[in-house]
Design goal:
The chain is mainly α. It has one domain: 434 Repressor (Amino-terminal Domain). It has five helices and no strands. α1 packs across α5 and α2 packs across α3. The longest helix has 30 residues. It is globular and about 55 Å long.
């Protein structure tokens, strides 16, 4: 007898929405991190080495492919000489600005 698939409830839809929001926050954090790194004239390799992370992980963070822990964010904040709160606030601002200006897909008629 085949397994019955339960209907998708509201809770699951909310979880999916949060995962999309998280993805957007990861992308925003990565852009902020890359921008600050470049402003300070550092390469990805230099920042990764200073923080004790691999170059691959550094690239993943900047592309938004990985979600950093608070400890990781704090390490980067210290190395970039900015408060952790500034990193997070800039990422939130970028995320909100992206939502506001994102083009809506055109509907077919």
């Amino acid at each position: 007898m085949p397994a019955v698939r339960p209907e998708v409830g509201k809770d699951e839809n909310v979880a999916n929405d949060r995962s999309n929001e998280s993805r957007t926050m990861e992308l925003s954090f990565g852009k902020v991190l890359a921008s600050l790194r470049k402003e300070q004239g550092m390469s990805q390799q230099e920042l990764a080495d200073s923080a004790g992370y691999s170059l691959r992980y550094m690239g993943d963070l900047e592309r938004g492919a990985k979600s950093p822990t608070l400890r990781t964010m704090q390490n980067f904040a210290v190395l970039l000489n900015v408060p952790l709160s500034a990193l997070i606030l800039e990422a939130e601002k970028l995320m909100k600005d992206g939502r506001r200006f994102r083009k809506r897909p055109q509907q077919r008629q």
